[in-house]
Design brief:
The chain is α+β, with helices and mostly antiparallel strands. It has 4 domains: 16-56 and 84-134, no CATH class; 157-261, no CATH class; 269-363 and 378-432, no CATH class; 436-578, no CATH class. Helix content is 43%, strand content 19%. The chain is built from 14 helices and 15 strands. It has helices at residues 31-42, 50-60, 79-115, 120-123, 129-134, 148-202, 295-298, 305-330, 391-417, 422-430, 436-461, 488-493, 540-545, 560-578, and strands spanning 206-212, 217-223, 238-244, 249-255, 271-281, 284-290, 338-341, 344-348, 352-360, 381-382, 468-475, 498-506, 512-520, 529-537, 550-557. The chain has a 6-stranded mixed beta sheet with strand order 7-8-9-5-6-10. It has a 5-stranded antiparallel beta sheet with strand order 11-12-13-14-15. A 4-stranded antiparallel beta sheet has the order 1-2-3-4. Helix 11 packs parallel to helix 14 (560-578). It starts with 30 loop residues before the first helix and ends with a helix. Residues 62-75 have a biased composition (Pro residues). Component of the Mediator complex. Keywords: Activator, Nucleus, Transcription, Transcription regulation.
């Protein structure tokens, strides 16, 4: 027969003071307390039914194990030994439970008393009444014991921290030192840069904002040319100031003008105007005067390389503009023995030939003759001898051309300063420099005066000396003799007017023939205009007083042959009438 089921129940007295007083007893709960608990568990009782409750009860019950064949049970002992065994096991179980409860209570009291120093309010709830009455709160504390090597660890850690701080301090010091050095260098560089800019401004240059074509960055431009005077040359004289090196040095770079779809570029080649004088010797032309390269003018330093570079660029720009106007003016003088061959202008001045060439300037070339002599029409040039006799004339010609171009700049500036009217606008649009025309015109005028005087003397020498006597007087630039010449440009820009006066007297008769040949030119300075005025006077007193004169001829010619024919006719007619 199997033993009956054994049920164990712990007495409430065994719990002692370790029982949780906050856990409610479900068997002792009232209806008012059960209803909220049921509502909290089921959430709602609206759809509850008897079938639903029965299903929940059935589901909560554990399944019944299938009927199995019970194992063979040991032979049943007697009732006395089974009861003693039960009691001994019960006593052991009770002892173990009590010991466990006591150890738990002691551990809780120990931990609570240990923590009472930090959290007295929380630990006072878990201490046993006996311990609270015997041991005050916070009476139990603890210290951590460290070995000797662990005690030295904070010192090592402090040394490491000091090392880190020292290393960081050295790094920050080095950064500040480098930043200060960099700032001092930048300040010195900027000071040097603006010192050069102030020197450029103090030199009288015009600065403006622009873009550097090298990197399209912002830069300061220099207007070193003559664009303000209304310059018609394609290069207006614009350059940029660039930083050269890390010391704040400034370099000047002249820029070529920008064209359609083409940005401004640095100027790579420099040219200057060279003048040659060739004289005809034995049907050949030899160089008798030539200008050397303008090394003396370029050697005039301002004391600073930057200003020297600007002055050098201005010099070559002026030379290029001079040759540009010479070429443009020479195109209108082709019919007056002026030839343009590549970069050379050849002017035939009857007994001499003047060459104006745009030569490339080379700083490293010490030879003054940069280029081979070119052919002038069908003339053969021989540069072997006779060189140097007309160097002064070549120099004077070049100085004259440069002065005339400067006078043109000044004239354009004065026009721009005036109130804009239709007249001033027309002058600005139609004004042009007088360079080759005055030079060629005055040269041809002097030659024409000599030819006219020689013509008059030749006609007079052809007369019979027994029948007539004559006197010939020349008055060069008679138009300037009335008043003193205030400026040399007045003589250059005005049309020259010279006179050749002939007084013919009949031998044995008081009649006199007075012929005045006024040699002048047109507005282009190179044409010949001769005005012939012939008058008769009865006495010398009437001639001196210009009284009672009789006009014989008053003509204007453009050819010396016609002048000679008319004058010869007047002379012969006078002699025949007097006879």
């Amino acid at each position: 027969m199997p033993p009956p089921d054994i049920r164990i129940h712990a007495e409430h007295s065994l719990f002692g003071s370790a029982r949780d007083q906050h856990l409610p007893d479900e068997d002792a709960l009232s209806v008012a307390e059960l209803i909220p608990q049921i509502l909290a568990e089921r959430q709602s009782l609206l759809h509850i039914s008897e079938q639903l409750i029965a299903a929940e009860i059935a589901q909560a019950q554990p399944p019944q194990p299938a009927a199995e064949t019970p194992p063979p049970s040991p032979p049943a002992a007697d009732d006395g030994s089974a009861l003693e065994l039960f009691r001994s096991q019960k006593d052991q179980l009770v002892a173990h439970l009590g010991s466990a409860l006591n150890e738990t209570s002691l551990s809780l009291d120990f931990v609570s008393l240990l923590m009472s120093a930090e959290r007295p309010r929380v630990t006072a709830l878990t201490l046993s009444p006996h311990l609270q009455s015997t041991a005050p709160l916070g009476s139990l504390s603890a210290d951590r014991l460290r070995p000797a090597d662990a005690r030295a660890a904070p010192a090592a850690a402090q040394s490491v921290g000091l090392g880190w701080k020292y290393q960081a301090l050295r790094g920050v010091t080095a950064l500040f030192r480098d930043a200060a050095r960099q700032l001092r260098g930048q300040a010195a560089e900027e000071a040097c840069y603006w010192r050069h800019v102030c020197a450029v401004v103090g030199h009288g240059e015009v600065l403006f904002k622009t873009r550097d074509p090298a990197d399209n960055g912002r830069a300061l431009g220099v207007q070193y040319g003559y664009g303000d005077s209304g310059l018609t040359y394609h290069d207006k004289g614009v350059g940029v100031l660039r930083r050269a090196g890390a010391e704040g040095a400034v370099a000047f770079c002249a820029l070529a003008p920008a064209g359609a779809g083409r940005p401004a570029e640095p100027i790579a080649r420099n040219r200057y105007t060279r003048v040659r004088v060739l004289t005809k010797v034995d049907d050949d032309y030899v160089v008798t005067g030539q200008l050397a390269a303008p090394r003396g003018e370029l050697a005039r330093h301002c004391g600073q390389p930057l200003l020297d570079a600007i002055e050098r660029a201005r010099f070559f720009l002026f030379e290029a503009d001079l040759f540009f106007h010479l070429v443009r003016e020479a195109k209108h003088l082709i019919s007056y023995n002026v030839t343009i061959i590549a970069d050379k202008i050849v002017v035939d001045a009857v007994d001499q030939v003047l060459e104006f060439e745009s030569a490339v300037y080379d700083d490293d070339d010490d030879d003054d003759d940069n280029g081979e002599p070119g052919a002038v029409g069908a003339m053969c040039l021989d540069t072997s001898g006779g060189r140097g006799t007309d160097d002064g004339r070549a120099q004077s010609i070049l100085v004259f051309l440069k002065l005339m171009l400067c006078a043109y700049y000044r004239y354009r500036l004065r026009l721009k300063q005036k109130m804009p009217t239709l007249h001033t606008k027309w002058k600005q649009a139609h004004s042009h420099p007088l360079l080759l025309r005055p030079l060629l015109g005055h040269t041809r005028h002097q030659l024409n005066v000599r030819l006219v005087a020689a013509l008059v003397r030749r006609l007079c020498r052809a007369l019979d000396p027994a029948r007539a006597s004559y006197s010939v007087a020349e008055d060069m630039y008679a138009n300037l003799a009335a008043a003193p010449v205030a400026s040399a440009f007045q003589k250059a820009v005005q049309r020259p007017v010279s006179t050749v006066t002939l007084v013919l007297a009949r031998v044995g008769a008081p009649l006199l023939l007075h012929a005045v040949l006024e040699v002048s030119t047109t507005e282009i300075f190179v044409d010949l205009v001769v005005r012939l005025s012939v008058s008769k006077y009865k006495t010398r007193a009437d001639l001196d007083a210009n009284l009672d004169g009789c006009n014989v001829l008053l003509l204007e010619f453009t050819d010396l042959a016609d002048v000679g024919e008319s004058l010869e006719w007047a002379l012969l007619n006078f002699l025949e009438d007097a006879a």
